[in-house]
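Instructor's aside before we start: the two examples that follow are unrelated to each other. I chose them only because their records fit on one page, so don't look for a connection. First example below.
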Amino acid sequence: MEIRPHVRGELLLSKELLTRSEYRTESGNDDGIAHDVILADDSAEMAMGAICSQLGGPVHKRRVSISDYFAWLIRSGKTHTPVPGMDYFAELHRTRMDLQCRFVVPDLHKWHRVKENTLGFITRWCQEYLHVHVWNLQWELAGELANGRGDAASASSSAEVTDSVADQDALSAQPVSLEDEEAERRYSPRYECEGAAEIRVPAKGRLLRGRIVNVSLGGCYIETAAPLEVGTRVEVVLRVTGLAFRAAGEIRSVYGSAGVGVKFTGMSAGGRIRLQELIAELEESWFAAGMPNEEDG
């Protein structure tokens, strides 16, 4: 499906609003949660409106709400099952209205992951109704997928990994396809970090331990003295700054007994969101310290 430029732009913007560091707020306080609730509600409505527009639905008008888009999807026969997240976003919108009209502070515990959950639903909507992956849209916009592979082909080549490290929500079961190596290497800055790493080699039943030194959206470098060969398929579990996620990967470089470079080849939606969150935190710290990042490659 050829995605219209304005649809792609609005989907990209909704993703950026939910992930970019400049839109992040300090967690654990009422002001931060209130900001996140409004941002998530706006982003979800923008994304669902763009999807419906692509499918020939109602045009964007100020009086059209996200519930109207949900109703149109069902009424038009574009979906024969309830839209994922209908109840969630109905409650989110009520919470937003209570905040803005009645000055009721959102529940800190219930909405502390509202941006991550919203992005997970947007990812599902794009896969289910447009057959594209929201994480690939940036590369399409930049012309990086000119090799003719569509999102469906890219998705079929990525390994689905169950993310059992951190607490899962219903979104984590949705697989997210990672971009091809060249696009990933070109656009993914690498950030130094410290944390624990586990490397599993399914083919040999081995479990190795190491220390993560740096990470990007495309992969990571792990210090480990364990011998591994280039091309080995692995599963890695990374724990950095309180965040943990699992990814399928492949050993792409070996530095003697010092460590290995791992390219991520597959990840659950929940894991991908946590990786994005980690990158945003590291990016914010680096810029705050006035330190340039190092580009992969």
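Example two begins here.
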Amino acid sequence: MARRFHVQGTNDFLVWAVALLALGLWCVKDGWFPSAAVLERHPHTVEITSPQAGVVKDVFVKVGDKRDAEQPLMRVLLTQTNAEIILKTPVVGELAPGLVQKDELVRAHQTVAVVLPEDSFYVFNRSLALLALLGALICAVVHFLVR
């Protein structure tokens, strides 16, 4: 004769499904639709500008180079003071097309280079969103099947 046990069920899987759904939606928001504050901390591109008008004397890089932070990009001879400044990369990343060439004139506050930062923030949020939403779906299915 088979025994019949009356075990009280729990809502643990439902709680986990709701928590993972909340985490997944938060990661979707930050990974695909970032706010202005998030974009400020983790920009998609960083523009490097010349502080004053001048002539580019040396370019130490080429498009596609990976650069560390504070590595020199180019040397600019300023036309007003005849002083030379060296522009450096502010973040770790790869140089995008649009780099100015040697002996080219640049205006004040003109973009001379664009860096694509090596930031894993968006990749992390997108992958965590997919995993959390998948976990929420599995927990919800288990909750409704076992209940």
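The beta strands are 46-49, 54-59, 66-67, 72-78, 84-88, 93-95, 105-106, 111-117.
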